[in-house]
Amino acid sequence: MAISEKNWLGMVKDQNDPVNHPKHYTSNPAKCICGENIECIQITEHMNFCLGNAVKYIWRADLKHDAIEDLEKAIWYIQRELDKRRKV
After folding, report:
1. In a domain, 49, yes or no
2. Is residue 55, in this structure, part of any structural domain at all?
3. Residues 17-40: what's their mean pLDDT?
4. Hey, which bits of 1-88 come out as E strands?
């Protein structure tokens, strides 16, 4: 692979990189119009903390060991965001 296809640590993108590109965030079949895979962080980095975390847990729900737990965490963050907005 070309150097441009490596991350900032020099690892090839396709290698398992649990810190920078965990499989449970890169395994999603979502692709941008150019054909590149979309990672969860590319979406959530434009959101506030609670909404970004909710999307993160929904995104990975079927890619980790406990989908129920991840969905419950998503609900927790959504509820926290709702509570915050209702107080304003």
Report:
1. yes
2. yes
3. 78
4. none
